[in-house]
Design brief:
358 residues, name from scop, 2 domains
């Protein structure tokens, strides 16, 4: 039996799903926000839009009163351009605000991280079997129930808004068109406002469902988590090669510092520690150390560059054990190291005096 997906998705699983465009998003939230934004703009600019459209119609009717001027190519072109300009100016604010509201609603749900991979054509999207599975799957019941709920909610809102005003509507018989239009627009706007609020609540429920469904789809089995963890760890061979390369680089840097040392303390065959003291630091520094073959290499490089090599078994062993390369020697070693350096300086001074005397 297949293992149940009981574990939450890992960050990498979520990131991969996002790159593929798989995010929790409700189209009802987008639609409700756009509807509310459109109603808000209409409530603020509705009178200006109506006046502009009315002026356009008056201009058209005035032109029709003089058909000799309007029924020409130039006159019809001028009338069409004027009408289109008026319509565009009336629609532009509403369209712009609705577009901004759609972007804000979408970003609010999924964040501002577009994915180009989601735009790539995918054969499975046009697969009839996959489409049938999506249509007749468990989502069908939720989507169907949601559609029925929308119809019922809108119907209830319309009934609750219009029923108390049936008498008022009957009284509008015989009123002038402007008053009738204003009354009908007020009722329609009231219905739209209530429907938009109800639509927003439905969108919130739908978004919660989409979020739950998305999280459920991303769940992983314990084996999948183990496989992902292993797949993102380097193989042991690669790690070993990296460690060997780092050790080789560190050893090369250490050997390059041996010619600059003031003395190499040995034990004499198993350990070698190269010390440097230039007077600018409070204590001598260990610039290289090693044992066996590395110790032999340190002593060989020291001999090639005339670096003094002093045999001191206890000191060499203690320094090798207690101090790392690049560290200053501890205070416990000050006296012993000072004796070694003094011995080296005496030998160097004697050699210089002999060279001058010759």
């Amino acid at each position: 039996m297949a293992e149940d997906k009981t574990e939450k998705a890992t960050p990498r699983r979520r990131e991969d799903a996002r790159k593929r465009g798989q995010v929790a998003r409700s189209m009802d939230v987008n639609g409700s926000v756009v509807l509310i934004a459109g109603l808000l703009v209409l409530s603020l600019m509705g009178s200006k839009i109506v006046d502009g459209m009315a002026n356009a119609m008056r201009s058209a009717f005035d032109g029709a009163a003089t058909p000799g001027e309007i029924m020409t190519a130039r006159g019809l072109e001028s009338l069409a351009m004027s009408t289109l300009q008026t319509i565009a100016l009336a629609i532009a604010p509403v369209a712009l605000v609705c577009a901004i509201a759609a972007v804000v609603a979408n970003v609010g749900q999924v964040g501002l991280r577009p994915s180009a991979e989601a735009l790539k054509p995918q054969p499975r999207r046009i697969n009839p079997l996959q489409g049938a599975k999506n249509v007749f799957g468990p989502r069908m019941f939720f989507e169907g129930g949601k559609s029925i709920l929308k119809v019922v909610v809108v119907g209830v809102i319309v009934a609750m808004t219009l029923m108390p005003k049936m008498t008022q509507l009957a009284a509008t018989v015989g009123t002038n068109p402007a008053q009738l239009g204003s009354e009908l627009a007020s009722m329609v706007f009231a219905v739209a406002q209530r429907a938009a609020i109800a639509y927003l609540l439905i969108g919130a429920i739908d978004f919660a469902y989409q979020k739950w469904q998305h999280e459920k789809g991303l769940r992983m089995t314990k084996q999948e988590i183990k496989d992902e963890f292993r797949s993102h760890q380097l193989p042991a061979e690669v790690k070993g090669a990296q460690r060997r390369r780092m050790m080789q680089q560190a050893r090369a840097r250490m050997m390059a510092a041996v010619p600059e040392a003031d003395v190499v303390v040995t034990n004499p065959t198993h350990f070698a520690v190269a010390l440097k003291y230039d007077g600018t630091r409070p204590a001598p520094e260990v610039v290289a150390k090693g044992q066996d073959l590395i110790a032999l290499q340190i002593k060989r490089i020291a001999a090639e560059h005339d670096v003094p090599v002093v045999e001191n078994k206890p000191l060499a062993r203690s320094l090798h054990r207690a101090v790392e390369v690049g560290q200053l020697i501890p205070e416990d070693f000050f006296h012993a190291v000072a004796q070694v350096l003094a011995h080296v300086y005496r030998i160097a001074g004697t050699a210089r005096r002999k060279a001058v005397a010759r």
